[in-house]
Amino acid sequence: MQIPAEQQQQIIAAIKQAELATSGEVRVHIEGPCPTGDPVARAIEVFAHLGMHQTREQNGVLFYLAVDDRKFAVIGDKGIDARVPAGFWDETKELMRRHFAQGQYAEGLAGGIARAGEQLKHYFPRLADDSNELSDDISFS
């Protein structure tokens, strides 16, 4: 399954919006099947491959989606993971799951990204010298 170009643009716009008021970084990675079978393990691999652990404040968030297998994961780097409330990632995944169950992948990702953006803004407000450390584009494999 391929995500249509207009939906990709919706996801990228959600990333840009989420990053406006934070030094945090959000990435989305989409692939067909999950090569490891375990979306969390694969998300950890992709996180490292994309260099997301190299952000200054360790505040990167990765949304991983294996569309063929209907699996996904959301993981945050040490800095953000240590600060979000207990259950935050599970609640975010549940919001996304409701959209995904209806085939609304762009809406689900955009909702999850917006939710993560609020936490990033709260714990990592945008700094005067902030730069976009990671690409906002969706990565594919």
UniProtKB/TrEMBL annotation:
<protein>
    <submittedName>
        <fullName>TPM domain-containing protein</fullName>
    </submittedName>
</protein>
<feature type="domain" description="TPM">
    <location>
        <begin position="5"/>
        <end position="118"/>
    </location>
</feature>
<dbReference type="InterPro" id="IPR007621">
    <property type="entry name" value="TPM_dom"/>
</dbReference>
<dbReference type="Pfam" id="PF04536">
    <property type="entry name" value="TPM_phosphatase"/>
</dbReference>
